[in-house]
Amino acid sequence: MNDMTPERNAASAAVWNRPAPPRPPALTPGRLPRGTRLLGPLLVVAIWEAASRLGILSPYTLAAPSTAAATGVQMIADGTLLPHLAASAGRAYAGLFLGVLTGVMLALAAGLTRTGEALLDGLVQVKRAVPTLALIPLVILWLGIGETMKIFLIFTAVLVPVYINTHAALRGIDMGHVELARTLRLTRGEFIRKVALPGALPGFFVSLRLAVTLCWTSLVVLELINTQTGIGYLMNRARDWGQTDIIVVGIFIYAALGLLSDAVVRLLEARALSWRRSIGT
């Protein structure tokens, strides 16, 4: 027998039929449209250009972006810029390739074997604590002041983030996948190829984005050390003559190459990890 009064029945029905409260807004923003990340840099360049045209910023202190752009076009036309750009790119990408390759190999050795971790992880952590630029005097004594020294220091700068992020990704592989591999009796090579490497890809791409930035930031300093070619050499020579427009050209080139390299890594990451989006849908 239902002992509830009609009034209580109506109140209960009102509670159950009450619309659900609105969901709180997400704490993380959605994916930005393409090109949106350039709004900040473009705004800074616009303010910079306006300050130069209004006379707030002296050309002897910092050349206007339009002046630097005209200088860059002139340097390309007279053949001054491209040989130095090729020299810088060769150094940066040679060190990047060697650092990524070695970092991945060390991460695999340390992440998949106890012996490798015991022997390698401590060494890389020591290198992590020592700034790459602090090694310059010692490496000059070892390798001289030529190309080998510059590529070696870029290599050491790149190796650390690649190792750390890839190693962390390997150590964080889901144990369920490991148990499944044991159940299927995968060989060591099959486990690495089908479980370890795919599982480490997200961490590897994070490290690769850091590496492409580090190879250029390291090069900026290294090309100021007794070199006759490269964007850094042009900037150093321009400093002696007070040519701020050429210095700004060099800054723009370093920024553009860094952004372009990061965009290429993003594209590779999106294609290599497209399976994650298909799982989420």
TrEMBL record:
<keyword id="KW-1003">Cell membrane</keyword>
<dbReference type="InterPro" id="IPR035906">
    <property type="entry name" value="MetI-like_sf"/>
</dbReference>
<feature type="region of interest" description="Disordered">
    <location>
        <begin position="1"/>
        <end position="32"/>
    </location>
</feature>
<keyword id="KW-0812">Transmembrane</keyword>
<feature type="transmembrane region" description="Helical">
    <location>
        <begin position="246"/>
        <end position="268"/>
    </location>
</feature>
<comment type="similarity">
    <text>Belongs to the binding-protein-dependent transport system permease family.</text>
</comment>
<keyword id="KW-1133">Transmembrane helix</keyword>
<keyword id="KW-0472">Membrane</keyword>
<keyword id="KW-0813">Transport</keyword>
<dbReference type="InterPro" id="IPR000515">
    <property type="entry name" value="MetI-like"/>
</dbReference>
<protein>
    <submittedName>
        <fullName>ABC transporter permease</fullName>
    </submittedName>
</protein>
<dbReference type="Pfam" id="PF00528">
    <property type="entry name" value="BPD_transp_1"/>
</dbReference>
<feature type="transmembrane region" description="Helical">
    <location>
        <begin position="92"/>
        <end position="113"/>
    </location>
</feature>
<feature type="domain" description="ABC transmembrane type-1">
    <location>
        <begin position="85"/>
        <end position="265"/>
    </location>
</feature>
<feature type="transmembrane region" description="Helical">
    <location>
        <begin position="151"/>
        <end position="170"/>
    </location>
</feature>
<feature type="transmembrane region" description="Helical">
    <location>
        <begin position="125"/>
        <end position="145"/>
    </location>
</feature>
